[in-house]
Amino acid sequence: MLKQLDHIPSGLLDLPATQLEAVLGGPTLIHLDGRRPEPLLVSVLMHGNETTGWEAVRRLLPHYLTGEAELPRALSLFIGNVSAAAVGLRRLDGQPDYNRIWPGCEDAGTPEHTLMRQVLETMQARRVFASVDVHNNTGINPHYACVNRIDNRFLHLATMFGRTVVYFIRPCGVQSLAMAKICPSVTLECGKPGQLNGVEHARDYLDACLHLSEHSEHPVAPHDIDLFHTVATVKIPPEISFGFAEESVDIRFEADLEYLNFRELARGTRFGRLRPGDSFRLDVIDEQGNDVMQRYFCTDDEELTLRVPVMPSMLTRDHRVVRQDCLCYLMERYDDHLL
User: Fold this and answer.
1) Residues 163, 272: one domain?
2) Co-location of 79 and 214 in the same domain
3) Which of 73, 152, 168, 245 is 20 to 30 A from residue 318's alpha carbon, by CA?
């Protein structure tokens, strides 16, 4: 069952993410009253090693909880995978990914799926005002916000964080996609964990959201947004070995691969070198679930290169994250779809 509280436990805000499990025992939804009753939902630690959201909350709430000021809006704080956070991992072996099990995903049936459904139903009953899910990247990426609907309310919420906005509808089962059915929602990508500028950016953004009285519905000015659309997810099949310096792997990626994030790459850009004589494939899946590797990549002359111009995001050299999630996403500009 979902654990819910109506207060912040004493001393909780003094603790780093690694110590939350000892106090909370598991995923916890905390409700705090504010001047406006419809709550802002903030979710943190969907991935246990992505700590910026929790650090932002630790810096945001003392101003309100010590009586210096009243919360301008009710706040519901969902603290997710504290068991993975205790050991600094995205998720534990045997656990599902906490940001792939929200209602609307193809998979179901685990206790964690049930828990996320309870969060959604609880927030719907509370007439949630907006939802913000705070994440980090493992590779080198700018700060940006993601939306799952081309809707002016969502886009304004996203551009409050910055002008770079990504629209996606896959992968399924993510928090923001589920919450988008009942309120404007965004995902924040705050750079790498442990960076103070990411924490301060997220804290200031959450404070600004708490002060919103309503959602703007007028169109976002084109000069205020760079909108991109995620068109495919790139995964490495389990049987394919990879590395960034190793010689005896199926694909040796370029050492500076993560520096290609959010760069508009030309056709022919090389991603890596292939083992001579072996057949090779990546799982490149579009929004409809189709295999589109041949649309985006070539494997000629023992090299993996782009077949068409595209912009990657979330490229990382972290082997564990690549195996647990993906190598990257592929994006295209989407500015002509602004309302």
Assistant:
1) no
2) yes
3) 168
Q: How many domains does the chain have?
A: 2
- Model pTM above 0.90: yes
CATH number at residue 144: 3.40.630.10
The per-residue pLDDT for range 330-339, each reduced to its tens digit, is 999 998 888 6
HEC profile for the chain? CCEEECCCCCCHHHCCHHHHHHHHCCCEEEEECCCEEEEEEEEECCCCCCCHHHHHHHHHCHHHHCCCCCCCEEEEEEECCHHHHCCCCCCCCCCCCCCCCCCCCCCCCCHHHHHHHHHHHHHHHCCCCEEEEEECCCCCCCCEEEECCCCHHHHHHHHCCCCEEEECCCCCCCHHHHHCCCCCEEEEECCCCCCHHHHHHHHHHHHHHHCCCCCCCCCCCHHHCEEEEEEEEEECCCCCCEECCCCCCCEEECCCHHHHCCCCECCCCEEEEECCCCCCCCEEEECCCCECHHHHEECHHHEEEECCCEEEECCCCCHHHHHHCCCEEEEEECHHHCC
Q: Are residues 204 and 238 in the same domain?
A: no
Per-residue pLDDT tens over the stretch 235-274 = 999 999 999 977 789 999 999 999 999 999 999 999 999 9
> Which sign does the torsion angle of CA 93, 97, 102, 105 carry?
negative
Are 57 and 105 found together in one domain? yes
Q: How many CB atoms lie within 10 A of CB 206?
A: 25
Which burial class, exposed, middle or buried, applies to 26 when counting CB atoms under 10 A from its CB (0-12, 13-18, 19+)? middle
**For residue 115, what are the domain limits?**
3-224
